[in-house]
Structure formats: C-alpha cells, structure tokens
Amino acid sequence: MTTAEAPALLEDTKLGPRAGGLYRRQNIFTGLGLGILLGFVGWVLSHQFLQGSNWGTDMVVTVTMVGWVLGFNIGMGSLNAPIRWLLGHDQSYDDELYAAGVEQGKARYWKFCTDHKVVGTQYLVLVMLLFGVGGTLAMMMRTQLITPHSSFLSANTYNAIVSVHGMVMIIATIIMVSGPFANFIMPIMIGAKDMAFPRLNALSFWLIASAIPPMIATFFLGGVDAGWTTYAPLSVQAPAAMDAFSMTMITFVLSVTIAGVNTIVTVFTMRAKGMSLTRLPIFTWGTVVGSALSIYAMPALLLGFTAMITDRVTGTSFYVAAVGGTGWLWENIFWIFGHPEVYIILIPPVAAMLEVASTFARKPIFGYKVIIAGFAAISVLSLMVWAHHMFTTGWAPDLAGPFMLTTELISIPTGIIFLCIIGTLWKGRIWTRLPMYFVYLFLWNFIIGGITGIYLSDVPADQYFHGDMFVTAHFHYTLLGGAMIAATAALCYWFPKITGKMLNERIGKVAFWIIAISIQITYFGQFWEGFQGMPRRVAYYDPIFLRANQMTSVGGYLLMAGWLVFLYAMIHSIRHGKVAPANPWHAKSLEWKVPTPVPLVNFLVDPVVTSDPYGYGEPDPEVAAGQPGIGDPEQELVPTLSSDHPTAGGES
Amino acid sequence: MSVTTTGHEGPQENGRNVEAVAGHHETREQRDFKERFALWLFITGDALFLVMELFFWFYLRALNTNGLWRGVNCSKANACVDGLGNPITHSIPKANPWYSVGIAALVVVAALLIWAVERAARTSEKRSIVSGLAGLSALVLLAAIALQCYQFGKVPFTTIQGTYASTYLFFMGSTLGHLILLGFLAIGFWNRARVGKFDNGQWHHLRLFRIFAVWIALSAVILTAVSSLFA
Most buried pick, A306, A471, A552, A566, via CB within 10 A? Predict the structure, then answer.
C-alpha cells in the first residue's frame, strides 16, 4: 500500500445515518445536567433519610458527590457501552466511528470521544485549567504572607487554600505528561492507531474531569483545613468539605489506574512491526514506568481515602487514637502512595525531555539502556522510602536508619540519569530553540531540588528542617522547577504536532526568562525562610521572616506573570501562528513521520520500523532518495510517512 | 527512525475496510491477549488493595490502641469510649465466622460454575447449556450478595465499637463491592449467552470472566481466613 491508495481507507470512515445512537445526544451539557440532577436527587434523598443520623451532614455530602460523579459520567456517555453490553448488544462499527469523533468537528472535544488525540488535547486543556486554579490559590497564599499579620485571609481559609492548592497541583502534575502526551503522542510514537482501549481512555479523562468540581466545592463546605496531606485526626474532624475532597481523590485514583493500565497494554501490545523494546523511544519507557508505579501506588490512596470516608460517614475508628485507631496508619498509607507518586510525576517528563535533548543535540540518547535501568531502579527503591516523611512522628524509630539509607540510595540512579542527560548534550551540535531553553532550566533547577532532597533524607538534618519552609522550597524546586519545566520543554517540542502551529518563540523566550529568574527568587526565598526556621502552613508569622517572605511573594507574582505570558504565547500561536510542517525539528521518531494535523488513523499505511529513533548522524534513506533531509535543519521536511524506498538496516 | 510501508489486507465488515477505529484491525487472538494483559494489571492493582487491607488488619490488631481492637481492657471500672463518645464497658465479641465462610464458599462455587461456562462454550455445548450455567452462576452470586447483606445485620457490633469492628465491617464492605461487580458481569454474561453470543469461536470474554471470578473467590477466601483466624 502506498499513500496513493490511502485515501480509500479514509473514505471508509463516512458515517451511516444512525451512527452513534445515544452518543449523538450526549455531550458535556448532558453530563453537567445529569450530574447536577443526580447530585440533587442524592442530596434530597440523603437529607430526607440520613440527616438525622450521627454523621448526617457527611453522609449527605458523600451521597451528593457520588450522585454527581455517576450522573456526569452517565450523561457524558461513559457507561453507554457497558450498559449495551449488559443488554446483549455490541457497539457497531459506525457507533465506534462516531465515538471516535468522525464528522463532528470541534464538537468532539466536548464529548465522550475515543480518539486518543482528542483525549490528549482534552487532558492538555484540563491540566492548564488545573494549573490556573492551583496558581491562583498560590497567589492568594503569597498575598497573605507578604506581611506578617495580613488580614487578607482568615487562618482557616488560608489552610483550606493550602490543602486545595497542594492537591490540585499534585493531580495536575501527575497527569501533565501522562495525560496530554502519553495520549496524543505516545501511540503515534510506537506506530499504533490508537490506545489499546479507546473507551477506557475517554473514561479516564471524564472521570478526572468529574473529580474537579467536588474539589472546588470544598471551599463552600467549610474548607479542608488539614493540609494537602490531610493528616488524621485533623482530616477526620474537618468540616464536610473533607467528604468532597475524599470523593475527588477516589475518583482521581480510578481514573489514573485505568489510564495506567491502558498505557502499559498499549506499549506492550500495539507496537508497529520492527518496534522492538530496545527501539522504543525513551518517552515511551517513561510513561510505562510511571504507569506501573501508578498501579502500585494508587490502591493505597484508594484504601486510605475510602477508610477516611467510613471514619467520617459511618463512625469507624481507623485513624482516631481516642477510639482505637491511629494517625500513623494514615501517614503510612498516605506515604506508601506519596513517595512513588513523586516519581509518577517526575519520570514521564524527564523521559519526554530526553527526547527534546536528543533531537536538539542531534545525537542519540547517551546511555539509553542505563536510563531505562535507572527508571526501573528508582521505581523499585521508591517503594521502600515512604517512612522518610515520618522521621519526626515517632513511628518506628529503629527503621529511621534503613529508610535513610534507601532514600539516599535513590539518589544514585537519579544522578546517573542526570549524567546521561548531560552526556546526551555533551559535544552535540546543539540547536538552541525554545524547548532547549527549558532543558537547561531543568538541569539547573533539578540539581538544587535533588541535592536539597539528600539533606532532607538525612535523619539529623530532617529533625531540624522538617515542617519548615526548606521542605517547601525543596519539593517546589523538584516538582515545579524540575518536572513542570521538563513538561514545558515537551510541550514546546510537541506543540506543532498537537496544534498544527509553530509556537511563537519570541514571546516564548520572554516567558522563559521571566519564569527562569522568578523560580530562583521564589524558592531561594523559601530556602531562606526555612533556614531561619519559619514553619509551613501558617497564615501569620514573626516579623523576622518578613524579608524572606517578601522576596518569595514578589518572586511568586513574577512566576505567575511568566506562566501567563507563556499561555499568551500559546494562544497567540494557535490563532495567528505559522502553520507547522510535519517535522519542524527534523526529528526521527515516528510521530514526526505522520502529517499534521494527524489523521484519524494516524498512519495511512502501516509503518515498519527498521532502526532506532535516535540515529542522528547516520545515513538517512530519505536523504539518499533525494528528499529534503533530516540532517539539514534549515530545510523543512516534507511528510515522509510513505517512503517507498527501502530503508537501511534490518528488522528486529 | 526509519520506516517503510507495508501493504496488507485490512479486515472487512459489510464490504468496507474497518481499520479506522482501534481494535478493528486486530485478530481475535491479538485482542484477547490485550484484554487478558489489562485484566491481570487490574487484578494486580486489586491485589495490592487487598494487601493494604491486610496491613490495616494486622497493624491495628498489633497496635491495639487503648485496648480497643476488641475492647479487651474495657470494663465497667475501666470504660472505653466508642466513636460517639459513649462508654464501652465490655469486650467486643468475635463475629460468627460461618457467614463469611458461607459467602466465600458461594463465590468459589460461582467461580467453578463460570469455569464450566467457559468450558461449555469452548467445547461447543448447546446454547442452552452455556446460558443455563451462566444463569446459575449469576444466581449463586446473587445469593452471596444477599448473604453478605444479611451478615451486616447479624454481626454483634457496629462500626463505632473499636478497630476490630471497623476493620471486620470494612472487609465485609470490600467483599460486597467485589460481589456486586462480579454479579453485574454474571448477569451480563448470562444475558449474552442467552442470545447466543458465545460458541467455540467466541469464548474469549468468558475466559476473562473466569480469571476475574477466580481472583474474587481467592480474595474472599483470604479475607475470610484472616478475619476468622486472627481475630
């Protein structure tokens, strides 16, 4: 088959007159409508029958939130296929085409759409909205802290904002790469036509979308004043907002688990012919490792929050010492999830950034197999470090030494991966475009975030730093300065493929410099606060911390401004930007071999992979055939999916 | 990365090439492998959930905060406090294990029946036999769900009476959740068997169902054993 024959296949995507069935009538408005309706029905019924019990308000809120999540997803069409299955019917081919968004234009972005590219785009928008919410809350916190006794927020409101800011940012950073790029880019990278389970893919997105309103609702239900770690017994005693918060987390866990399974199955079962495991792009390995860690870590969080709800709604006593439970149980469960979660956040963006580094250094990835081994080592070790978050709690003091050791051990594979990134850039002919700026910024920030982490893993040092702003600065350097900046590098890199437009680099570079400088101001300010001994999560503080707090707040405002400029660059580029060629970076992995915009089936003809994705400097068959070449960065590459010329090298 | 192209005959449906949606370009075996792989990953996640539940049980039992695992230190002279602040003046009795044993036995029987459904479909038994066995497995699961609900009314404690009571009831809730999911699937499989969706060429989903049912039976047995033997 050649491209000349390919349009015939696309003609087969025309829909029949009754295609879609119920899907035709479902969209975000029916989702919102049914979600509100079932939430209201839940509220009325539980108010009527359960309000009189000892845990009435908590029950009412829980039932209402369950009604919302179920109703929203039924209204969206998430459950159409399972219900049809139960009734003995199967989805027809036309139904599946309709669900994939055929002939629906932009409306498909507001529907239960199974096309992985639509789901990836939906995730991207959701992630940016979440960062917007989390960032706004951060600005409110910094405004409160710009003077020692500000009356901008009450102490309770401040604590509620701390909790929601923390968890919204955790949710956003967990999905910031595994959502948009593992959905949009990864299947194309491995030569697949879609994810392994397209309906589960759409379900994972709409589940997480339905989890956000309950999180926002917490502000109207008294606020979660227990911090983002929701330590017991504070969380058990918190207002009814905690029930909504727990529902958000449970729904989020279900979504991430489904997405993780889908990703792993896609990578291991849907690769193109010739795409052996050693030819997998490193980003694909990153998503697999992140997904595997999700499958390990998320059940702990699911159990933890389910038990939290039963403590609050039925009076069980898991976490309250006065009635037989223990707060240590929550801490253990939370951090059994919580530390692998750091690597669920970090590994996929780092892997994505390695793609950027290789492409712009025009070099193969240095230590490809070592990096994969490093990811694996980090994953295994991350299962054995959770108690370093509990050094000061008094839980199992005899285990402090072993946990300190495992925590320090994890810096070895992390350091090796870091060296491999530098090795990839070393002596490369670096093409310094906007994505590379963010790679450099990652390297700088991650060194600071990583090394301060080693201090914190040390038991004596942790006794001093624990609970103060030093810890806050450390994890912001790691998660924002590291993971989020790496994800931004990936966004700049894949922006042309996703949107079809080139990102405006002039505005992008302005944003970059504001972000780069303001990160240092903000989080060095927090280190300063930490060294002075300022505790975390306080709305008021002693005036001796004033200068450091002012520095942090000014840096924070600048940082927000930098992100807004970056957002402007994106919107401006989408509306007025230059149309992107299929392969603007002259990269070699498969996603750059398909046309932009990417067709529904991704590949009009089945690709057969005959070499690894980082063969820069090797003779390219397209160049040999007289086509514009990868080796010439000044020339734009014509989409070359359909090379009819035999390629060099053998198949695996 | 170098790529070349390969021509191949795509699968046809009503005379049309049906490659445009994922899944349609795969063989039955490829799809079956994909689905089994996903199922095993979900079971891995569920198994970790089970392990965490067991951690709850043994950790709270070992810690026995304020003697409130089963209220062994509670007496009129040394009253403990329940979740509502009321005094507990006696130790909490153990739950009758036979309900849990009965439920676990029913789930094991259901899993065996589901295994028989798969076998019947694979060996080209009559549609009535396949649907009959599937219907029977659904009935057994409904009986298990009913017994589980009945047990909630029969345990000699309530949620507020310490950590043993809390964890025991949590185990029951966890089993009930699994049984409802399995029951939903059983009804679906019975209905699909009834309309002739399974035969010796179409039995792969029954295998998935069997694997999942065996896992649920195993987890019910483990929870029953732990809650009965280590109270």
Answer: A552
